[in-house]
Amino acid sequence: MRHLIDPLDLSRQETGRLLDLAEKILDKPQEFAHCCDGKILATLFFEPSTRTRLSFESAMLRLGGQVLGFSNAQSSSAAKGESVADTIRMISGYADIAAMRHFKEGAPFVAARYAKIPVVNAGDGGHQHPTQTLTDLFMIQRRRGRMGGLTIGLCGDLKFGRTVHSLIKSLVRYEDVRFVFISPEELRTPGYILKEVVEPSGHPWREVRKMEEVMPELDVLYMTRVQRERFFNEEDYVRLKDSYILTPEKLRLGKPELTVLHPLPRVNEIDQRVDEDPRALYFEQARGGVYVRMALILTLLGLAPGILEED
Ligand code: CP
Questions:
Q1: pTM of this structure
Q2: Which of 50, 67, 133, 207 is least surrounded by CB atoms within 10 angstroms?
Q3: For the chain, how many helices (H) and strands (E)?
Q4: Residue 234: predicted pLDDT
C-alpha cells in the first residue's frame, strides 16, 4: 500500500506516468466514469479549504465513487480530544482512501502509520502540499511541454508556503531548472530547503527582493499569498501582506510566453486585471487539479496498473 505524504513519495518516473494518466482522463473523462464504483473517499479536513477538498470530492464522484468526511476540526471528534491516530483507525473501516489536511505539520505522516488505507497529505501546516505540486507540474507540462530548462520565479511567502516547499522538492529532480526566490527578508525560503534540497541539486538559484528586477528572465512566475493564519502577530502580517502585487504594468515586463501560476486562494497579490492576460493560468491550473486527483485516486487504489514502480 502506498501513501502520498511528501512529493518525493512518488519517483520522477511515477510522477510523469501519473500526469500522463491525468491528461488521458481530461481528454476522455467518460472512459473513467465507473472506475471507482463502490469505493469511498474520506476527506478529513482539520483546516479550511475550497480547492483541495472539493476537487478531491469532485474527482471521486467523477470516477463513480462516493465521499464522506468533515471540513473543519470542530465538527469532528478532534474537538473532544481524539488523536489523529485514532481518527484514521476509525476511518480505515469507513472508507477506501483518505485525504487529510491538518494544521499540524506531520499529522498526515502520523495518520499513514496507523492507516489501513492509502492516506494523502492534502496540506500540513507550513510543511508540504504534494497534490498541489502534482497540479502545478501538470499545468507546467501542459503549457510548456516540459519541466526542465525553465527559469522559475517563486514569489511571496516562501517561508510558510507549503506549496512552494513541495514544488521546489519536485522541480529539483528535472534538468537545468533555475530558481529565483522573490520574497521579503522575513519570508525567505527556509534554510533547510535551501541547504538540503536546492544546494545539493546543483541548480542555480538566487534570492531577490524586487519582482520587477527579474520579471524579464522568468519562464514561470509562481505567485503565493502571504498567509495570515501562519503569523504569530497581526502587526507583522499587516506589514508584509502587500509586499508583492502583480499588476498588468509589472506583467508587461514579462516574456510573451511567461506562465503565471498561483495555488490560490488569492487575496491582493494579483490584481484582478491580470486575470484577462492569456499568461494568467491560475484558474485553469485549479481546474486541472480534479484530473490530477482522479489519476492519484486510481493509482493509490491500485486501479491504474503501470503507474507505480512495483506494479
Ligand atoms: N490551493 C489550495 O490548497 O487551496 P485550498 O486551500 O482552497 O484547498
A1: 0.95
A2: 50
A3: 12, 9
A4: 83
